[in-house]
User: Fold this.
Amino acid sequence: MARFKKNHPIHPNAPLLFEDHGKPVTRRQFIRQGLATGGATVLTGGLFSLFANPNKAYADVAPDLEALVNSIPGCTLGGGGGLNVPFICFDLAGGANFAGSNVLVGQQGGQMEFLSTAGYSKLGLPGDMLPGQAQTVTTLNTSANNNFINDDLNLAFHADSPMLFGILEKAAGAIGNVDGCVIPARSDNDTGNNPHNPLYPLVMTHPSVRGEVVDLIGSRSSISGGNSMAPAMYINPEFRPTKVDRPSDVTGMVDVGDLTAILGPTDVTAVMESMARVSHKKLQAGITTGLTNDDIIKNMVRCGYLKSADIANEFAGRPVDPMGDLDINGGPAKSLNANAIFSQEELDGPNRGEFRKTASVMKMVVNRYAIGGCITMGGYDYHTGDRQAGENRDLRAGRCIGACLEYARLRGMPLMIYVFSDGSVASNGNTDDTANAGTGENLVLGGQGKGEWTGDNSSTACSYFLAYRPGPVGPDLVGSRQIGHMNAGASVVTTSSPAANNPNLLVNMIMLNYMALNGMVSPGDTFAFTQAFPNHGLGNNLDNYISFGSIRT
Assistant:
């Protein structure tokens, strides 16, 4: 039983405590219940950044240093040409609801083969809000189509989805260029042990899939960069995600100290190059600066100075602070940019942690400073005996997802967003009739007659992804917007896809679609995927699991 009074609004930042849950002990448990938001370590672009990322090449260094780079085994500068599709995943810790009340999930015929009335009740939708029936209740989304179905993102959502409302609030300009797919798939409740996190496999898809500063980032200082684990077979310490959950983490990675203020951007590069030359000569002479005489360590030190010079050449004097990006931060009441994604009040207000975290990760990923990032949001174990707690947390997650889509639009960049959670929740059919309050940024959602979330239920779980393509048209649908299905009673049919009962195969399915969005595979040509992931476990009918064609620019 939840320790909350019925109809008492729970702030999205409030912790969730339950009589039937043990006291949180691990960091994952603190995050799941909303008692913590993330770690606090920073990796800079200095000497030892090479330990995390040995594959960089984005800026021109002096000719003698280019020759030195080529003479050092394994030392390369920069990414792979910046042609990869940026990737951001949202790890909603605790077991959030996606199916039915947010993204529509149907039976074998897809999203529009509706579930039973009892099934929708289990998913928190009362009899007067069922998708496919005449609409008699006013919804959050005034742009909704008839029959409680909204397809503004092409992937069908329930018209009263708070997650959709948040997405559309922040990314209205992206409508028409977004599409997506939902994947019904069970996973264990309330645990970080689900191998959901797909970051490591990103760098396995192709040698050119690299970031300009680091390869992978995550808002948690965990092995996976998020709450859920990475599949063990894909973990490679060489690519461990760098922790980014605040603007200072972004600026710290490309910080060259006070040199830019003293010398200017051009001279900073010259200074850093000189340091690389001096260090090389010292090492050649046997002066090891306190390190061992091992040749591998010497090469790593040489390469480290070269990388620092390269980062200085690329970023000295260049604005990288998310808070200084006028597309992200429009200033007080958006006075500096009326079309900015966030106002200064939002970035300084009650949701500042999640919004600043999102701003930092999307700044890195959309600009291809990193190829992939994971944003963990805590407190999604929201079976609190009401509907309000979950609605407001889903709304905030939607705003963060929408912010990423809008930033991609403003930058003219493609983007793949993947949303997952550990388990899910279910309703017993009782309704929460509290009303909405406030407007705009101060909107607080009530239950509005929808079913209360009363318990964990892994059988109602699903994940989904969205794809954004800039330009006149959105992604080309080449398959289905639903992979796998539920039965009429709103339980995942565990034989409906290889991933339906295997979170590790869900990661492989996401990678298959990521490679398709990059133009690496397509229906009838999946060789590149089988080469990159020879033990993928998805069977021989890979064409059935590809939803879209290339969105790469």
Q: What stands out?
A: Residues 48 and 304 are 6 Å apart (CA to CA).
